[in-house]
Amino acid sequence: MNCSLAQHERLHLKHRGHEAMHAEMVLILVATLAVAQIVLVQWKQRHHRSYNLVTLLQMWVVPVYFTVKLYWWRFLSMWSMFSVITSYVIFRATRKPLSCRTPRMVYKWFLLIYKLSYAVGVVGYLAIMFTMFGFNVFFRIKAEDSMDVGVILLFYGLYYGVMGRDFAEICSDYMASTIGYYSKGGMPSRSLSGDICAVCGQKILVEVDDEGLIEDTFQLSCGHIFHEFCIRGWCIVGKKQTCPYCNEKVDLQRMMSNPWEKTHVLYGQLLDWLRYLVAWQPIIIGVVHGINFTLGLE
C-alpha cells in the first residue's frame, strides 16, 4: 500500500506543471495556425502567381519525399509517369509560336486527368463507406484491406486532381498570352473578332473540305462566344472564372446544364482545400515543433 502511494507521489511530482505546459503548447499551435493563415491569404491576394508556383512545387515534391522514405513504390511509379507526360504537355504549351493543335491537346490531357481523378476519388470514398457500414463482411473482405484500398484510391484521386488543375492553370496562362487575346495584367495584344475562339485562337467556323463544320459553342454573359470544349477547359479544368478576353466574371453555375455537372464545382473547391492541407499544413506543424523545441516544451 505504502509502495503504491510512494509510486503515485513520484509520478505526480514528475508530471507537475505539465498541464500548464500543454496549455502553452496549444496556444502556440492556435496562434501559429492563425498567423500562417493570415500570411498565406495575404500572399495569395498580393502575389497570386508566386503563391501558386510555390504551392505547386511543394505539392509535387513533399509526397515524393515520404513515398521514398516509406518505400511506396507504386505511388512513385505513377507519379513518375504523370510527371513525364505532364512535362511534355507543359513543354508544348509554352512553345512560341504555339501550334494550332496544342490548346486542344493540353485541355484533353488535363480533362482526362480531372475525370479520372474524380472517378477514382469517388470509388475510394464509396469503398470507405462500404467498409464503415460493414458491407465488406458479406463479401468476406477484411475491413483493413477494404479500408486501405478506399483510402489509397481517395488519396490518388484528390492528389492528382489538385496537380492536374494547377498545371492546367499554368498552361492556360501561357497559351492564352501567347495567342494574344488574353492578358493577365492589362489589355490583350490582339483584337477578338466574332468568329474566333479566344481560348484556342481558331475559328469557330472551321473549313473542312470546303464544307463548314460548326462545333458546339457557348456564349458567356459578356457576349463573347467560344468553343464549348475550350471554355469548359478554361473555367473548370484551368480554374479560370473570368472571360478569356474581357476578364468579366463567369457564372460557373450557368455553364452546368445538367444537375450532376454541378458537383464539379464542389469537387474543385475540395481540391483547393486539399492543396492547403498537403502543401502548407506539414510546414506549419514543423514551425510549431520548432517553436516548442526552442522554448523547451516537450
TrEMBL record:
GO terms for molecular function: ubiquitin protein ligase activity; zinc ion binding. Residues 197-247 form the RING-type domain. It is a multi-pass membrane protein. GO terms for biological process: ERAD pathway. The chain crosses the membrane at residues 20-43, 72-91, 112-139. It comes from the Eukaryota. PROSITE patterns: ZF_RING_2. Its main location: membrane. GO terms for cellular component: endoplasmic reticulum membrane; Golgi membrane. It is found in: Membrane. Signal peptide: none annotated. The keyword Cytoplasm does not apply. Keywords: Membrane, Metal-binding, Transmembrane, Transmembrane helix, Zinc, Zinc-finger. PANTHER family: RING FINGER PROTEIN 175, RNF121 PROTEIN. This is Ring finger protein 175. It comes from Neogobius melanostomus (round goby).
